[in-house]
Amino acid sequence: MTIPEVSVDQLATHIDAGGTVIDVREPAEFEQARVPSARLVALATVPANVDAFRGNGTTYVICRSGGRSMQACEFVAAQGADVVNVAGGTLAWIASGRDVETGPA
């Protein structure tokens, strides 16, 4: 199964349009810096939280650099969720100069 990917530039457009973003990093990483509006579903908890990836339209999945989010996408896509991986992850988001949120979710 091929998982589609978007750049952080494309992600920003989808967020502006109301897109859902799920971050699959660990809680400590999520608190350090995250894409605004992202919700945390740590990778280890993805199998128990597949419904979090289902909703109105596509869910954009992000991690630090794209590897863990791709794993999550592959798993939840096999369960029928409409997901897209964010290429470059949070590091690419930060490198693009965009705002981040910090602290507890």
Can you put this structure into words, describing what you see?
The chain has a single domain, classed as 3-Layer(aba) Sandwich (Oxidized Rhodanese, domain 1), CATH 3.40.250.10. The protein is built from four helices and five strands; from the N terminus they run E-H-E-H-E-E-H-E-H. The chain is globular, with a radius of gyration of 12 Å. Helices cover 32% and strands 15% of the residues. Helix 3 (67-78) links the parallel strand 4 (59-62) and strand 5 (83-86). The protein has helices spanning 8-16, 27-32, 67-78, 89-95; strands at 5-6, 20-23, 39-40, 59-62, 83-86. The protein has 105 residues and is of the alpha/beta class. It has a five-stranded parallel sheet with strand order 1-5-4-2-3.
Could you provide a short overview of the structure?
With 105 residues, the chain is an alpha/beta fold. The protein has a single domain (5-95), classed as Rhodanese-like domain (Oxidized Rhodanese, domain 1, 3-Layer(aba) Sandwich), CATH 3.40.250.
